[in-house]
Predict the 3D structure of the following.
Amino acid sequence: MKPDESFIGQPIRSLQTMLRTIAQIYPSQKSVIPDGIYSKQTEEAVSSFQRRKGLPITGIVNNATWDSIVSEYERSRIETDPAQGLQITINPGQVFRLGDENSHIPLIQTILFVLSQAYDVIPEPDYSGILDQATQKSIIAFQTFSGLPPTGELDKRTWKNLALQYTQVTDRLENGFDL
């Protein structure tokens, strides 16, 4: 079993990176900072791994230790595929109005906050979890900015435009463009 392509030519840093990742999952595993130097800390992290896995405790990485570290590293990695777009649906006819509480409101407030950083005409909402006056004011400004009727209510059409604008703004940020 081989580690990631980015590890090729850097066996000690590879070892340290894998041990550090494993230590984030298993509190009993001693961690190490990946610096590419087989120091006392690296030896201790290897010994800690060997102890935990029932291998001979030498602090030295032989083939059995390496294969075991790589195998556990592969199982403990978190999948890092690109994030998918939000697929939150507001039901037809559903409208959030002043004073409403809903699990979507904090997300809406976060999206409005990001948009307020991109567009000066949109004021920052409060993070209350309620469609309060500050959030309503942000929604009205967003609706006006987007050419929607400025009702201050969040309906399906406003939600779709919020999601679209949010995606466009975050895409610009991810591609290195300033707001």
